[in-house]
From TrEMBL:
Pfam families: BPD_transp_1. Coiled coil: none annotated. Residues 79-286 form the ABC transmembrane type-1 domain. This is ABC-type sugar transport system permease subunit. SUPFAM superfamilies: MetI-like. It comes from Paenibacillus eucommiae.
Length: 286
């Protein structure tokens, strides 16, 4: 009898899970599957809009060869520096969001106001707003110019890494504005850790520093991975992304090929993040 009940409970969980994911599947099939498939089809063709309609000329892999081998300016001179910048921005945003979430989880007066303040940029900072701030030179740290820190970085680091580091520091405030959702995720994750664990640790004489490294951080690791994934995807739509700036070209087939190459790069980047995260967590457990 107990076996049948277990099977029934397992079936109910599967049905509940299917019902929760059903709206996404229906929305994907209805609104995204065809555009994705059509863009993949266009990447093998020259697509032009003419007076009589859409003209399609089959090109095979010519677009991919052109982007990867014949004209590598977009990938190697523009995209790769942006990827190095994103690689540096990723830990900055996640670590900042984690520390702010831990502080905002404390019981103090006005914490709801501070939570709202940290989330407000998510609502107001659209891509155009951020681009306007960057073009006006806003969002940087004032002491960089005052103490010529950019010159120090340029003189002491390889230009390959000096340029993205300086770029991040010149828009550091804007980078931190991208941490609102991550802060909320970490706040929700912090609520999953029972306060009784912290009370037991305090009774045993553990300091706040010890409880952070032995209780808070291990308990938040699943949410760290979630925020790494979310931040990676979010950064790849950053307004300064050179790929997004190239999507206005007249040849839709070439634009589609760029988009699918970009998708492959994002997939590899996410795979690298998963691999590094698994290695780090495995080492910490050992």
């Amino acid at each position: 009898m107990s076996g049948k009940r277990r099977m029934k409970a397992g079936m109910l969980r599967k049905i509940e899970g299917s019902l929760f994911i059903a709206p996404w599947i229906i929305g994907f099939l209805a609104f995204m599957a065809y555009p994705l498939g059509y863009s993949f089809y266009m990447s093998f063709n020259n697509v032009r809009i003419v007076a009589t309609g859409i003209k399609v000329e089959y090109q095979g892999l010519n677009h991919y060869k052109y982007i990867l081998f014949e004209n590598g300016y977009l990938l190697y001179n523009l995209l790769f520096p942006f990827l190095r910048q994103a690689l540096l921005m990723l830990p900055v945003i996640v670590v900042f969001a984690l520390l702010v979430a831990v502080m905002l989880n404390q019981n103090f007066r006005g914490r709801m106001l501070f939570r709202s303040i940290f989330f407000l940029p998510v609502i107001f900072t659209t891509g155009q707003v951020v681009q306007e701030f960057i073009s006006q030179g806003k969002g940087d740290l004032g002491f960089l110019t005052r103490y010529n820190i950019s010159d120090v970085i340029t003189q002491n680091l390889n230009p390959v890494w000096a340029s993205p580091i300086i770029s991040i520091m010149e828009s550091f405030v804007l980078v931190l504005w991208y941490s609102g959702v991550q802060i909320l995720i970490f706040l929700a994750g912090r609520q999953t850790i029972s306060n009784s664990v912290y009370e037991a640790a305090r009774i045993d004489g553990a300091s706040p520093w010890d409880t952070f490294w032995k209780i808070t951080l291990p308990g938040m690791m699943p949410f760290v991975l979630l925020n790494l994934i979310y931040t990676t995807v979010d950064l790849f739509t950053f307004p300064t992304n050179p790929i997004l700036m190239q999507m206005t070209m007249s040849n839709s087939g070439l634009s589609s090929a760029i988009a699918w190459i970009y998708f492959g790069i994002i997939f590899i980047f996410l795979g690298t993040v998963f691999w590094l995260f698994s290695r780090i967590t495995r080492t910490s457990r050992a």
